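Summary for the funding panel

The consortium committed to producing paired sequence-structure records for every protein in the target list. Below we show the first two records in order, beginning with the earlier of the two.
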Amino acid sequence: MELLSQLFIDYTLRNVALGSALLGLIGGVLGAFALLRQQSLLGDVLAHAALPGICLAFLLTGSKTPSLLLLGGGLAGWVAALGVLAVLRHTRLPQDAALGVALSSFFGLGIALLTFIQHNHQGNPAGLDRFIFGQAASLLGSDVLGFALLGGVVLALVGLFYKEFKLISFDPDYATSLGLPTRGLGILLTSLIVLAVMVGLQTVGVVLMAAMLIAPAAAARQWTNRLGRMVALSGLLGALAGVAGALLSASRENLPTGPLVVLSITAVVVFSLFFAPLRGLFWQGLRNQQNRRRTELERLLLDAHLLANHGRLNPEELALHRGEPLPKARRHLDFLKAQGWVEPKEGGFQFTEPGLQKALALKETLRLRS
């Protein structure tokens, strides 16, 4: 509660929390489309490609103004994205290979430029390396306002082209047959992701930016099968993770905000993977267990009915027919008796009327399935 109250009082904490929330919101919304288009690595490429752009912007201008450096990073990321899309369109190189090569190449160039600046530039290059891991604590009110304006543009364009983005995400061939400019829409969506990267570089940095694009979408995908709900939930989870990371960072000294934001959304992803009702491993395990039990019960009922038709439904014959121990066969017959499907008779068991109807209905269902 104390941290929540500080959120409205402390200027620095408020800026960090708002900046991180905006990053999570924008990254989550755009990441949903990137995930569905199987371009999860694209955000990573854009983030790593931004580093050489930041370094070149500093070399050309000698200025460390955040907006100028982020503009350079955004332009470099945009050029990298267009290059990757061109390679995929004109060559047979697989998508993951093209993205991986671009990621490592641009990041290597960025590290080389950063090292060159640190050792040879006469200006003061201190602080450029913060874009590698982010430095959310340096966010100012003007930065948050800039993030909000960029975020507003991104969300407005997503709302305006929602149907088109949805179509190219699920069935680009059908979109082309309708006459939609799929290439231009893909470039527009990539450009919006570039804007999201520009928001995230100062907060979580180059290395961790990809997580803020993909993790919220991956978590949201576990909870719904509807794109609209997925986009909204992904943005919400990203924003909540941003605020949670900022609050965790403020709870102790020397805790970096960016990594904690990423760890927060990672925790959401892990929880979703296990406990989301639609796809969670926990619920899936329960459903699988229920299915196995139902299948075993159906097999037991059919085996018992087969033996009853020949007048040999007793523990010994059931154990022999199913290849199971005699005590287990007795337990199975006791279970059928408890369900009211069989009843004792001289020398064994016989089916009751409800049990007979159950067995015949099961046989009819199996016959229709086959």
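The next record, for a separate protein in the list, is shown here:
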Amino acid sequence: MQFTSVLPALKRAGAAAVGALGILASGAVYADSIAPTSFSASLGVGESVTITKTVTVTAAPPTDALIDVMFVFDTTGSMGSAIAGAKTMAGGLLASLGSFGSVASGVAFYNDPGAGTVKAPVDTTAATTVAAITGLGASGGGDYAELGYDGISAAAAGGGWRAGSNRFIIALGDAGFKAGAATLASTLAAVGGISADVIGIDFCSSSGTCALAPTFASSITGLGGSVFASSTTPDAIAAAITAGITASFATYSKVTVDDLGGGLPEIAVSTVCTGADIGSCSGADAVGSYDRSVDRVFTFDYTFTRVAAGDKDFVTFALVDDKIVARELDSFKTPEPATLVLMGMGLLGLGAARRRSV
């Protein structure tokens, strides 16, 4: 998304986010899903079973996604009011983001002088993030631009990201970036290496820096990110962040199912795409240019193979662009010894019957 400083764009995005969350709160079943919601079987070593897994990616955002958010603050002097607003809205924002699924969050910052610093890596305890934001202050700076690349790179490298998570680096600032320990190129590599979405919350209109070059907006878009303008009020900051995360789910290009290794060492899985909505199947993946304008359905042949004895319960995930949006539970038992004995006796009986008939 390209940056605009006009508030109508933010209002539209914020309204979309609030509307989406309202749908989720209403109890209507519009969440991304994987069906069947559970599967169980008894498999002997070497045996396999194949079932159809159906993934529905809905027009509304997911409610069972894995969401990791690193907030990255510019803590130079001009950001005082924005940081104060963020402190006020932090707890309520994290609670509302729970509507998307399981949320973990953390905090990093940058200043000048001073390199980017991770204050708290992602953690599912919201109070840890709130405390980290509360502990921030605004000071220093006095020149232009700021060490934003350092802050974003530090967050990417030290975020403590969970496997399979939808990863967001939320940069809150009012000034463009300059090279320090990190550069544009190295920051692009750091962000790309963890497949994170960069979202910029731009306070240039509050600090009078919108006309300075480089702008905060151009620095964020240079990293492939999206920018949302905000005032320093708590409600505006929360709306901008929510709008940014909601918008990141709007388009996607790949859908598949996988257990991410959870079934091993007892159960191995394999996936073959069999139906790809308007796109096409390529091995395990449904691929295409998709959006959330409508619900979209994808199907897969999903094969479980017993490779070692032992009961096993594990989760299979619906993955959109390799990130978890829904999950279901699979359960496997090893056939009881008595069952194997009965099967053996049955085979012996068949053999005896064949001898008598000869």
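Regarding this second record: The chain has two domains: 7-21+65-248, 31-62+251-336. The domain at 31-62+251-336 is CATH 2.60.40.1510 (Immunoglobulin-like).
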